[in-house]
Amino acid sequence: MGNVFRAGADDMYLSNGGTEVFVEVLTLAVAELARRPWELRFAALLARQDQNVLGRGAVGFDLAELEWGGTAEERAAAKAFVLAVTGLAAGRHRWEELGYEPPHALGYLRRFREIVEAFEPPAGVPPGGVLPAPAVACCVRHRAPSALPDWEGCVFCHR
Ligand SMILES: [Zn+2]
How does DSSP assign 98-151, residue by residue? Predict the structure, then answer.
């Protein structure tokens, strides 16, 4: 069992352990970069990729199901943000805080970057949009977005 991170027809399958690594390294990067509302919504989406809360193999998302913005500029900025987060993560941002050396993380991030780069964010609001409200709370202990109001704490709280 694992989880799928998808952009329409293009997808990346990760084992449950691989998913945990992928989400953790992205979380450390998004905590650094997210400022604007859409960015904080993406941070909130990552905070909800928590298998210790939702169950093993019960996370994943499809980029085609996110709301990317009403204008071409907004959509381009949102996509650039996801790529920036991925790039910062690939620069091993705060990896010393992971407590382990993630051997495959760079491969996951490289693959995710390919998926995002090739993806054309859709205009309008997709049915059943999955982007949560902006992350307003930050876990002070881990300096990472909290999943409030859905649940308390960040992905590092529930390890
Ligand atoms: Zn935490």
Answer: TSS--TTHHHHHHHHHHHHHH--PPSS--TT----S----EETTTTEE--TTTS
